[in-house]
Write a structure and sequence with these properties.
Number of strands: 2
Helix content: 55-70%
Number of helices: 37
InterPro entries: ARM-type_fold (IPR016024), SAPS (IPR007587)
Organism: Cyprinus carpio (Common carp)
Family: Belongs to the SAPS family.
GO molecular function: protein phosphatase binding; protein phosphatase regulator activity
Strand content: under 5%
Structural class: mainly alpha
Largest sheet: 2 strands, antiparallel
Protein name: Protein phosphatase 6, regulatory subunit 2a
C-alpha cells in the first residue's frame, strides 16, 4: 500500500531552517541551495533577505577571501553568494536595490586600488548589472550621485568585467526616456573622450585593448538600437561623438603620436573599421561586391572619412616600416620578417575605405601607390590568406568603382570633384588602383600563375595565394568582357608581346585552372548547398510514404501496377538466337511420348535423380544469365495472351519432386503449386 512509504520528501534545507542558530555558511554548504532559492522556497528567501545575511553575501563578493584557504575552495562561497544575489528573485532584488547601505558596500569595491581580482570583479559586475536591469530607477539614481563613478570604472578598465558594466548601462536600461537620460549623463561625463584617451601609445596594452573593444561595442549597440526604434527620437549622443571628425582625429593622433606600437595601431584601427563597417558585417556582406557592385556600397559619415584622409600617409608608412617583430617558425619554414597584425589591419582599413567609393579617399590611395605595396605584400607573403582576402577585396572594389563611374559617365577619365589633400599631379588623375608609374609589361598575376603551374609540374606544393589570384584574374577577365573602359584602355596600351602573353594565359593557363577547380570543387559545392524546404521531395521520398493509410491499406502497393513488363523481342534477336542454339546443344529435349507416371505412386527416392534435376536447372539458369534473357523469356511468355510461362524458376529438389515430374513440366506453372486444374500450360519448345 502507498501509505506504507513516506513520500513527503522534506528538503534538508527546510530541516536546517527549523533548527535554532543555523548560519548562512551551513545553508551554502547544501548542494540544492540555489535550486531551492530559484524555486521560491519561501522559508529560505525570508532567511536570506535578513539584514545580516544580505551583508554577508555582499561581503563575500567584494572582499578577497583569506589567502591560506585551499585554492579550489577559496572562491566557492563568493561564487554561491553571487548566484544567490543574481537569482532574479523579487524579494532579494528588492532588498538589495532598496537598501542604500548594501549599495554603498557594493560601490566600495570600486574604490580599491587596481588591479582588482578578476573573479571578484566579475561577481561585482554581474550583481550590479542585474540590479540595473531589475531595479533601474533606484540604481541609476544612486550611481548618478557618485561623481567619481565613471572615473573609478575607467581606472579599472584593465578588468574586462568593467567593460561589461559600461555596456549594461548603455543597453539594459528601459524605458527609452530613461535610457536617453543615462546616455546624456554618460556623455556629460565625457565617456567617449576618456576612452579615446586610453588609446594613446603610452598606455598599458591591456587598457588599450579593453578601451578599444568598449568603443567598438558602443558603436554597434548604438547603431542596432537606433535601427530597432520605430519612432523617431533624438540621436544617440554617444554615437554622435564617436562619429565626429574631432573624436576620430583625436583617436588617430593617439595612435601615431610618439612611438608607434603594434598594439596602439591594431586597437585604434579596430575602432576605425567598426566606424566604417556596413550594417551587414562579415565576409558574406563584403563578398557581395562581386555580384552587386557599387550599389552595395554603404553610406559612411563624411566626417569620419575627412578625419582619416590626412593620416593615410601614416598608414602607408606602416606598410613600409612596420613595428619590429621577431622571426617565427611556421609550417612552411622560418619567417624572418612576419607580416604582423599592424600591416594586416592596414590592409583591412584600405579595403574598407575603397568600398566607400569616396572619390577623394580613392585618389589619395592612388597617389600614394598603396595598392602597389599591397600587391607586393600579396606575392611576398604567399601563405597569408588573411592578407590575400583583403587584397582581393581591394581589387574588386576598384573594378566595381571604375565600372560604376563608366556607367555614370562613359567619357569621364579624370575626376574633378573634391580634391585630395595630398600633393602631386597624380592625385588629380587616374582611377583607384591604376598606377601610372608601373611598367605596363609587368603582369604579376600572369607570371605568378604560370610559375605555379611549372612549380607543380616539378612536384612542388601549390602556393597559398593561387586561389585568390585565380579569382582576381577571373575578375579582370570578366570586366574586360563587359567592356569596362579603364581595363580596356590599359589592355590596349600594353605592348604587343605582353598582350599576346596575356591572351595566351587567359586561353590556356587560366582556362585549365578554372576547369580543374570546377571539377575539384564540384562535390564540395554539393556538400555545402543549402537544404531547402522541399529537400525530402528532391531526395526521392514522399511524405505520404511515411504517413498512415487508414482508408486504403493497399496504397503503398498501388504503384506496382504502373511497372511496364512489356519487352520488345526484336531488341534481343541476336541474344535470342544464341540462346536457342545453346539450349539445343546442352538441354535434352523433353519426350512428349514418354508414358506419364502416376505422381501418387509410392516409389524409392533416387538421390542421383535429384542431382540430375538440379544440374539441369543450373544449366538452364546459367544460359539465361549468360545471354541476359531471364527477363526477356519470362516477359515474352507473360506477354502472350492465353499462354503461361514454362517451368524455368522451379527447383524440383526444393519442392520434393522427382525427375519424372520435371520431365512432365508441361503440367506445371511457374513457381506455383496452386494453379487451377482447368488451366493449361504451354509445353517447352
Amino acid at each position: 500500500m502507498f501509505w506504507k512509504f513516506d513520500l513527503n520528501n522534506t528538503s534538508h534545507i527546510d530541516q536546517l531552517l527549523d533548527r535554532e542558530g543555523v548560519t548562512l555558511r551551513e545553508l551554502m554548504e547544501e548542494e540544492d541551495v540555489l535550486q531551492e532559492c530559484k524555486a521560491q522556497n519561501r522559508k529560505l528567501l525570508l532567511f536570506l533577505s535578513k539584514d545580516h545575511c544580505m551583508q554577508e553575501l555582499v561581503t563575500l563578493i567584494t572582499e578577497e577571501p583569506p589567502a591560506d584557504l585551499e585554492e579550489k575552495t577559496r572562491f566557492k562561497f563568493p561564487n554561491i553568494a553571487c548566484e544567490l544575489l543574481t537569482s532574479d528573485v523579487a524579494l532579494i532584488n528588492d532588498k538589495l536595490g532598496g537598501d542604500e547601505s548594501l549599495l554603498e558596500k557594493l560601490y566600495h569595491f570600486l574604490e580599491q586600488e587596481p588591479p582588482l581580482n578578476p573573479l571578484l570583479a566579475s561577481f561585482f559586475s554581474k550583481t550590479i548589472g542585474n540590479l540595473i536591469a531589475r531595479k533601474t530607477d533606484q540604481v541609476i539614481s544612486f550611481l548618478r550621485k557618485k561623481h567619481n563613478f565613471i572615473s573609478l570604472v575607467l581606472n579599472h578598465i584593465d578588468a574586462s568585467a568593467m567593460m561589461d558594466l559600461l555596456l549594461r548601462l548603455i543597453s539594459c536600461v528601459e524605458p527609452a526616456p530613461l535610457r536617453m537620460e543615462v546616455l546624456n549623463w554618460l556623455n556629460e561625463e565625457r565617456l567617449i573622450q576618456r576612452l579615446t584617451e586610453l588609446m594613446h601609445t603610452g598606455r598599458d596594452e591591456e587598457r588599450q585593448s579593453n578601451a578599444s573593444q568598449t568603443l567598438c561595442d558602443i558603436i554597434r549597440l548604438s547603431r542596432d538600437q537606433a535601427n530597432q526604434l520605430s519612432e523617431v527620437t533624438e540621436p544617440d549622443p554617444l554615437l554622435a561623438v564617436l562619429e565626429s571628425q574631432e573624436n576620430v582625429a583625436e583617436l588617430l593622433k593617439n595612435m601615431f603620436e610618439g612611438e608607434r606600437t603594434e598594439a596602439s595601431v591594431v586597437n585604434g584601427t579596430q575602432v576605425l573599421l567598426t566606424l566604417l563597417e556596413s550594417r551587414r558585417s562579415g565576409l558574406e556582406g563584403l563578398m557581395d561586391l562581386y555580384s552587386q557592385g557599387c550599389e552595395r556600397s554603404y553610406t559612411v559619415n563624411s566626417s569620419i572619412l575627412c578625419a582619416i584622409e590626412p593620416h593615410l600617409k601614416d598608414f602607408q608608412q606602416l606598410l613600409l616600416n612596420p613595428p619590429t617583430r621577431s622571426a617565427i617558425l611556421t609550417t612552411v619554414g622560418v619567417l624572418e620578417q612576419p607580416l604582423g597584425s599592424a600591416r594586416l589591419h592596414v590592409a583591412r582599413l584600405v579595403a574598407s575605405l575603397l568600398q566607400t567609393c569616396d572619390l577623394s579617399i580613392c585618389q589619395e590611395i592612388c597617389r600614394l601607390n598603396t595598392m602597389d605595396l599591397l600587391l607586393d605584400l600579396f606575392f611576398k607573403y604567399s601563405w597569408n590568406n588573411f592578407l590575400h582576402l583583403q587584397v582581393e577585396l581591394c581589387v574588386a572594389s576598384i573594378l566595381n568603382h571604375s565600372a560604376h563611374a563608366d556607367l555614370q559617365n562613359p567619357g569621364l577619365q579624370n575626376h574633378e570633384e573634391r580634391p585630395a589633400t595630398g600633393t602631386g599631379s597624380q592625385a588629380e588623375e587616374g582611377t583607384p588602383g591604376q598606377n601610372s608609374t608601373s611598367d605596363p609589361a609587368n603582369t604579376p598575376i600572369q607570371d605568378a600563375l604560370v610559375a605555379n603551374v611549372g612549380h607543380l609540374a616539378e612536384g612542388g606544393r601549390r602556393r597559398g595565394n593561387m586561389g585568390h589570384l585565380t579569382r582576381i584574374a577571373n575578375t579582370v577577365v570578366q570586366n574586360l568582357e563587359k567592356g569596362l573602359i579603364i581595363i580596356t584602355c590599359i589592355s590596349t596600351e600594353l605592348p604587343e608581346d605582353c598582350r599576346g602573353r596575356w591572351e595566351s594565359f587567359v586561353g590556356e593557363t587560366l582556362r585549365e585552372t578554372n576547369r580543374r577547380n570546377t571539377v575539384d570543387l564540384a562535390f564540395s559545392d554539393y556538400q555545402i548547398q543549402q537544404m531547402t524546404a522541399n529537400f525530402v521531395d528532391q531526395f526521392g521520398f514522399n511524405d505520404e510514404e511515411f504517413s498512415e493509410h487508414d482508408e486504403n491499406i493497399n496504397a503503398a502497393f498501388d504503384r506496382i501496377a504502373e511497372i511496364n513488363f512489356n519487352i520488345d523481342a526484336d531488341d534481343h534477336s541476336a541474344n535470342a538466337a544464341a540462346f536457342e542454339a545453346c539450349c539445343k546443344e546442352r538441354i535434352q529435349q523433353f519426350d512428349d511420348c514418354e508414358e506419364e507416371e502416376d505422381i501418387w505412386d509410392e516409389k524409392e527416392i533416387n538421390y542421383a535423380t535429384q542431382i540430375k534435376s538440379r544440374s539441369r536447372y543450373s544449366t538452364w539458369m546459367i544460359c539465361l544469365r549468360k545471354y541476359n534473357l531471364l527477363g526477356s523469356v519470362t516477359g515474352a511468355w507473360e506477354g502472350s495472351p492465353g499462354q503461361k510461362a514454362p517451368l524455368v524458376a522451379s527447383d524440383s529438389s526444393s519442392s520434393g519432386g522427382s525427375d519424372s515430374e520435371e520431365d512432365a513440366g508441361e503440367h506445371k506453372t511457374v513457381g506455383s503449386s496452386k494453379t487451377p486444374a482447368n488451366q493449361t500450360t504451354a509445353p517447352l519448345r
